Amino acid sequence: MSGVGQLAPAAIGAERVTSPAALAARPDACSACSGALDPLGHCANCGAVFGEAYRCPLCHAISDVEASKTQYTRCRACGGPRIPPSESAMSEAEVACLRDARSEQLRAGAFRAGSGFAFASGGLSLLVTLLVLLVTSPAPLAQVAALLASLVPFALAFFALRSARGHARKFDAALQQAWLLAASRLVSAHGGQPSAKAIAQLLRVDEPRAELLLAELSVQDFIAQPAEPPARVRVTELTDPADLAAAEETTRGTSGVSRP
Ligand SMILES: [Zn+2]
Ligand SMILES: [Zn+2]
To answer: What residues make up the domain containing 119?
Structure first.
């Protein structure tokens, strides 16, 4: 049985994120089968979910997540990208990335549908034009003009497909960023050294994917580290006597070499 898709009350604001207090807000037993619920409000017996931890930040329904066509999970209620709930609450940045990903996903879908429609209507208009030309055989210039006009929908289809690909790339980037943030949150929640297997279980991804996320996180950590201590030797030439005096003043304490 699928998760219970309860709609959120209208009072719930758009900026709401799962907070530790909200994680606790759940009934004691499954109202569908009276089975026991885990700490997050998931019934192991029938699979229904009840806890606030399962509220989708995109559609605000309380629903479980499921596998999607991407490497990551999606909301069972709205189909938008969603990070599986865990004991540590999702950050605002993760929610923002998920929202970005969702809007790019919808745009990509709209442009793809538009491209398909333009392509089909282009095919139809080309067919009609050829039939008309065959029957009426007008002047050559009119024939060329008619054929060119019937090619316009193909050009539109091409541009729509290109836009769809652009939005699909932005979707992938936002999705990857959201999961990286989630992996980073889980790493710090588990003392900094969780195994790829543990991360895979928490994020409901396969182990190679979890390893990739962890590898990317350690690369980011490496880049974020302060590279080298600031250089102590000044190599710029000081022309202003006041600067020269000040520089001498600061170096006198550490170096024994006297300067002119
Ligand atoms: Zn149940
Ligand atoms: Zn949803």
So the answer is: 92-224
